[in-house]
Amino acid sequence: MPEFRKDMILDEWVIIASERAKRPEMFREEKVKIETPSGMVCPFDKGNEEMTPPEILRMDLNGDIIDKSDPNWQIRVVPNKFPALKPVAAPGTKLYGMYSIMDGFGLHEVIINSSEHILYLSQLSQPQIKLIIDVYARRLREIKKDSRIESVIIMLNQGKDAGASLEHTHSQIFALPFNSPVLEKELRGTLRYYRLHKNCAVCDILDFEAKENKRIIFENNHFVIIQPFASRNPFETWILPKRHYSNFENISKEETQSFSECLKLLVDFFYNELSNPSFNYYIHTGPLHTKTDHHYHWHFELIPKLSIKAGFEIATGIDICITTPEDTAKFIKEKLKI
Asked: Between the chain's N and C termini, which has fewer beta carbons within 10 Å?
């Protein structure tokens, strides 16, 4: 029997279509090797640094900031060459007849995850992934100094179907002068839950999931990996910090290590067991200059591109997930032998 499940934070329904659900192993796809066209030069490779805009940050494998002339770098942060937002624009709305418009003010940065021409995050070691997470937090803390910026989204697109424009693994940071619509919905939902229950919604999710133990995949000292109860997509995966805090930039050194363990485990699973599908991941973190500590809980979401939204989803806004999170959690745990 199909069932509606409600996302308790966003206050939205999804359909878990159990009668048309695929078995988790059916989502494996044949691996397709991506060939770099002969003669094509990648602007993110070591030695091609002049092909990007002037860099913001350069770090070595030890996590130390190094001089911009030092060739022994592991990660570089640069402005996007074709930015969706620009820091030179002015924040603030103005009227255009009956409409409101605003200059495209904000930041759009690229984090080059490796100096080597590596396509997939799974090809990096856990210490290299930890360094990426360190850079995320470092950049957030720096961006927070600009009072004009209110929210930041950190994301990674891997694979053509996920919208990656360059195959060399990289992350992106978008900094906005207001809260994105998704963040606004999460803030409203978590505040509504807090007022009703006097507790954080994500903390209560963690407690409930631990008791049920049907959708938890893995946990360590600081994080839990789950398949969310109201999954919108097959194998949609969340990483939730056990400690309650609203802003990712406040992550501790110990938590960074634990987070990198979770992320490495996840990307290796998708590469090895689901034939390396395209995916997007996002870090949802609280507003930079508005206090939301009591009700908002930052979190990480990874969405593999294993299904296509069709007419019903687009017309109604109700997603149909063609596998159950309980089945996918069991499948992942079996494959990871945990």
From this structure: N
Query: Catalytic: 170?
Result: yes
C-alpha distances (whole Å) from 45 to each of 62, 107, 128 are 19, 23, 16
Torsions phi, psi for 239 (to 5 deg): -115, 120
Contact 292, 187 (CB under 8 A): yes
Count of the separate structural domains present in the chain:
1
Q: What is the CATH number of the domain that holds 196?
A: 3.30.428.10
Catalytic residue, chosen from 168, 170, 295, 299, is: 170
pLDDT tens, residue by residue, 306-322? 988 888 888 998 889 98
Sign of the torsion angle spanned by Cα atoms 170, 239, 12, 192: negative
For the segment 25-48, what is each residue's pLDDT rounded down to a tens digit?
A: 666 655 544 445 545 799 999 999
At 58, give phi and psi (nearest 5°): -135, 130
Cβ count within 10 A of residue 277? 20
Domain that holds residue 298: 3-336
